């Protein structure tokens, strides 16, 4: 997962889908400074586009932190469009994510320190794996209880068995 900053929870957000299908799996994976899984969300939702799905995943990250009482955290995404919109919500934002960006911007002041980080796909791989396995209904129901290394081994094994 990789961690930046002392004492901040890091949430990786990603999605998975098939082309021409409105069903998208979203994943939020929360890790602490020891690189351990702390919490997460994986679910399938209907979205009009992958970009809307990625915005939905980031909204879920904000909801998760509120639910578990975390006020300082980093949300990571590999979506340049959403990252740019969160840095400057007053600039032109794609219409399909405008509502989600506005909602996220209205929620951020309720927290202490909130950072958004743009990462490459490799740095976001754990959320990508969780989303892919969720989409294929292969995500173990106890995935949050597994140790990170064991979790990755299980994920890669399951992903390759499907292929």
Which characteristics define this entry?
163 residues; alpha/beta; Nucleotidyltransferase, domain 5; five-stranded mixed sheet; 5 helices; 5 strands; 40% helix; 23% strand; disordered N terminus
Write structural notes for this entry.
With 163 residues, the protein is an alpha/beta fold. It has one domain: 2-Layer Sandwich (Nucleotidyltransferase, domain 5). Strands 3-2-1-4-5 form a 5-stranded mixed β-sheet, with helices on both faces. Strand 1 and strand 2 form a beta hairpin. The two termini are 24 Å apart. The N terminus is likely disordered.
Strand order within the widest beta sheet: 3-2-1-4-5
Give me the CATH superfamily.
Answer: Ribonuclease H-like superfamily/Ribonuclease H
Strand fraction equals 15-25%
Query: How many DSSP helices?
Result: 5
- Tell me the span between the first and last alpha carbons: 24 Å
Provide the CATH topology: Nucleotidyltransferase, domain 5
List the helices and strands and how they pair.
Layout: E1 9-17, E2 23-31, E3 37-46, H1 50-68, E4 73-77, H2 80-87, H3 95-107, E5 114-118, H4 125-135, H5 148-162
Parallel strand pairs: 1-4, 4-5
Antiparallel strand pairs: 1-2, 2-3
Helix pairs in contact: 1-3, 4-5
Brief summary:
With 163 residues, the chain is an alpha/beta fold. The protein has a single domain, classed as 2-Layer Sandwich (Nucleotidyltransferase, domain 5), CATH 3.30.420.10. It has helices at 50-68, 80-87, 95-107, 125-135, 148-162, and strands at 9-17, 23-31, 37-46, 73-77, 114-118.
